[in-house]
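hey so i finally got around to running the thing on that chain from the lab meeting. sorry it took forever, my laptop kept dying and i had to restart like 3 times. anyway pasting the input first so we r on the same page abt which one it is
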Amino acid sequence: MSTIARQALLSIETLLPNVSATQCLAAEVAAQAQRGDVIALSGDLGSGKTTFARYFLSARGVEGEVPSPTFTLVQTYSVKPAAIWHFDLYRISTRDDALELGIEEAFADGISLIEWPDRLEDLLPSHRLDVDLSFVDSDEDARKAHLSGNDTWRKRLEAAGLGTLDRDRAKL
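ok and heres what got predicted. didnt touch it at all, straight out
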């Protein structure tokens, strides 16, 4: 989870037993995302941040290959109603590097998916949704997802029936 402190009014933990469950969760979050939203994707290397982002983008209508922005640092996708900016900040050195990538424009006009959000330090907005993905020791395909966010995200996810995501998602 992001190291930037804030009070989270939404705190949901769920088991993602397989990649299909990750796909469903990403699609559910994508359906609730709006212009100006920031979704901060945290977790160890290989925990599924880019996979989540790819499924999110697919659910928002992005077709074709979705490359990881590991080396380009940012990929933008022109979809309606708002462009989606996918940032991978693993390789940046300072928060100022993110400013050069246009992150303020993304925050104002688009939907931002941010891998390695801790690199932003105080630039990371408090109104974001944090999605922290972690490995499950007993199953190499499974992940645990912890979602936390402000009251706006809590209301959106509850209205969509996602307020009780801690159920077993194996049936998905």
